[in-house]
Amino acid sequence: MSPSKLNLTTSVVNKIGALRAGFKTSAILALVPVFVAVSVGLTACGDSKVIVSEDKGLVSSKVTMGDKEPIWPNDDPSIPDGGGVYQAQNCAACHGVDGKPVAGKATVDFSSKDWGRNQKPVDQYDFITFGKTGVEHPAMRDKLRTSQIWNLVFYVRSLSTPPLTDAEISEVLPVFGANCAVCHGTKGYGNGPLMKGNVLEPAPANFQSFPRFYDRTDEILWDHIANGIKWEGMPNFLGKTDKAKNITFDRDYIYKLVGYVRHFHESNKTEAATKAAHDKEKEEESKPAQQENKPQT
After folding, report:
1. Which domain holds residue 107?
2. Which residues pair with 241 in a beta bridge?
3. Burial environment of residue 37 by CB neighbours within 10 A (0 to 12, 13 to 18, 19 or more)
4. 142 found inside a domain
5. What is the Cα–Cα distance from 57 to 39, expressed in whole angstroms?
6. 93 vs 292, which has greater pLDDT?
7. Residue 292 domain flag
8. Residues 210 and 175 reside in one and the same domain
9. Is the confidence at residue 203, as pLDDT, over 90?
10. Which of 132, 158, 184 delimits the end of a domain?
11. Does residue 39 sit within a domain?
């Protein structure tokens, strides 16, 4: 500590000592924060570093819900396995085999596209997991694993909007590659060629992010693709054409793109098949690095 800082600190201490004689203990304690603040201010002016702890508690929209914070899945939820949960829990007794409500037992039509496209996956998770005040429905938090609940969420969503098949995903892939991957990357991580050097601000959306895209309805995703997001640099596609691919971005095709975005964070395969597919992807991605590190002979 420099002499000037030492003198000033000593002066503050002396003043506190003088006040000690005339004030009660409570008054002295009230001055402690002032002394600490002065000391921190002095050290911050020199070469010392002030370490600010990371704020982890105020970033979630559900922080006030206590233990009702959602637990995100470890892998893409499986729609087929969700069908197994739907059957095992006898959901059809109230909601019907095809999602159409049974008279007197349920009112929501899971097969309605208008209803399904306006539901956030995270809200559906909350409802199934914790129940809802004023609605007679069992809370499943103590009956099902987290992965089973997410599987059930996406199975229910599939009753109104079936996921893209592998053949449909293959058909949309070149269109996505030509129009979207330049920013979002071919696998949706938001790491396309234009993001080299992190030059885009804000960064393109990472379609693999569960917290972000489980908090979006299909209607919101459709609007973002159709009309763009000007302040984020997202262009509008509604009414435009990709002549090379002979595609017009009309209402229906944009909904197909919504389904393509969803395929990055849901699966039309079983949990086991999904894990196997992802393990294979990781293995293929690691091959170039392995070849680069292979010693030359």
Report:
1. 67-158
2. 248
3. exposed
4. yes
5. 28
6. 93
7. no
8. yes
9. no
10. 158
11. yes
